[in-house]
TrEMBL record:
UniProt subcellular location: Vacuole membrane
Main location: membrane
Membrane topology per record: Multi-pass membrane protein
GO cellular component, one term: vacuolar membrane
Cited function: Vacuolar Fe(2+) uptake transporter.
Protein known as: Vacuolar iron transporter
Catalytic reactions of this protein: Fe(2+)(in) = Fe(2+)(out)
GO molecular-function term, one example from the UniProt record: manganese ion transmembrane transporter activity
Length: 115
């Protein structure tokens, strides 16, 4: 099964089968031998990713406040890679600078490596 959430529902329905074999045959990427532990591992991985996202957001927020010109230049550099000229992306950058929340969301979506 491709979808992990779907797999979890399937596992709950067939957990006696999974526990009988000590490893669910549908869990190809599980590091643990017991399916419930595998789900705990996935939960911890998701929690770690959420913590990382929060740290990245805080870092971007701090940079927008501390070095706004550098952050605006980063946006311009990315847009220039798509073939836009400064007179074309300039109004977009200025619009984002006027709306810090939108600027932060833009930076999180397009400028961070993981998100």
């Amino acid at each position: 099964v491709e979808n992990n959430a779907c797999h979890f529902k399937l596992w709950r329905k067939t957990r006696s089968h999974c526990l009988q074999f000590k490893k669910c045959p549908r869990m190809h990427d599980c590091e643990f031998s017991d399916p419930p532990l595998c789900h705990v591992g996935r939960y911890l991985a998701a929690q770690s990713e959420a913590d990382h996202y929060k740290r990245e957001m805080k870092r971007e927020q701090d940079e927008i406040i501390a070095v706004p010109d550098t952050e605006a230049a980063e946006i311009g550099d990315i847009m220039a890679e798509y073939g836009l000229e400064p007179h074309e992306y300039g109004p977009v950058v200025e619009g984002l600078r006027r709306n810090p929340q939108a600027w932060l969301e833009f930076m999180m979506r397009y400028m961070t490596s993981s998100y």
